[in-house]
Fold each of these.
Amino acid sequence: MKIATWNVNGLRARQAEVLDFIARERPDVLCLQEIKASIDQLPFHLRDIDGYWARWHGEKGYSGVGLLIAKELHPEQPEFVHPSFDFEQRVVSADIRSPLGALTVASVYVPNGGKDYTAKLRFLEAMETWSATMAMAGRDAIVCGDLNVARTEMDIHPKERKPNQVGARPDERAILERFLSHDLVDTGRALEPDNENLFTWWAPWRGMRQKNIGWRIDYVAASTRLAARARQVSVQREVGTSDHAPVVADFDLL
């Protein structure tokens, strides 16, 4: 099973890139963030992508997430859900069937906190409660997206490290760790624990992306049972013109 996540930073501006990515990778699940469009603003070829069930959850120019599920993986249309704490088009999830049984998949965009840090902490705390609820129910889950927190200093290039900057503060990192503690594994770091150049976002100036001077803030978090079957998690730094790169995780569930 192939799971991909990508903060596209404007779906309409990058629709050709997204469609090319889907045609090339054929992910079983695709999670998109910052689509910055409501469904009525999307062209019809994006609203209904061949071979996928899709839910678009956003508004013009602001945030928004998308979740695509391959019909080959899940022949019947799944029920798409927005958790009760999702007040600003930041989360969409669905319960699907996988070769290992029932599975919740989710696309998440955590606010960056630059304008309202308190709101970011509230969202992270609600997200942590949500992960605890799924774990208590014994539900396998894969939560993907731009979580806007670098877990450790290793997840920020040395040239980008600054004291007490948003995205790297102890309190937000602590909540992210609690979120993961509820039977979730950061698959990218689990597979590459010593990779100091594993970044997913780069400031869009001074060739930061080409030089790989960035942050790792995009994640594929999977339940322990699923994470043990993760074979590869790759960051496709050369793909697209968003300031984020697609992250693709391959799981061996057979």
Amino acid sequence: MKLPKYNNADICKDQILSDNKNKSGIYMWTNLINDKRYVGSSENLKIRFSQYFNVNHLNRSNYMYICRALLKHDYSNFKLEILEYCEPEKCLEKEDYYLKKLKPEYNISLNPSAPFSGRQHSDESKTIMSDAKSGENHPNYGKTLDNKTKQKISESKKGKPKIEGSGSPSQQIEVFDIKNNTTTYYDSIREAAKALNCDNSAIRYYFKSIKSKPYKGRYTFTKTK
């Protein structure tokens, strides 16, 4: 099967969205001006590409090099390639393979399971990530946090604005990593989305879906009070 390659993302926009409806897989953006690349994956490529073609989304996600580059150089100066189509649960594994093989310049991290690597973080974010990465040496590794522990975490976040509802970016949530058996708490959907290198809508969709499968076959989300 010949995989699609779109040499001018601007001209090929409609074809990109049409070709990738209801497909999941790995993709790569290439800047035709400086040859810098970005590799990503999605369980729904059409939705992901629709986000890239949304200037408001690019502005909201300007912490990502690829979003800033698309805004700066325009779609007409980018090539988009499908590296591989795969089952949704294989996306993370396949993305990891291509990141290590190609070492794309626009990716903040070359590890899809640690997308924050290489960024500057607040002390609070560093604590969250440190806890998540401690593995077997962490006292909570492999344990279900009791209500008292959860209450302490919740109380530590009091005083920060919170808007109720699954569609609200300020909804506090916990993210359970099935692979590493760790739970990480985030103050908002937006914060969790940044950590997982995904869009807010992916997490909101998870809450709205009656039978939600783990995101990328790995993460589950729970709203905290």
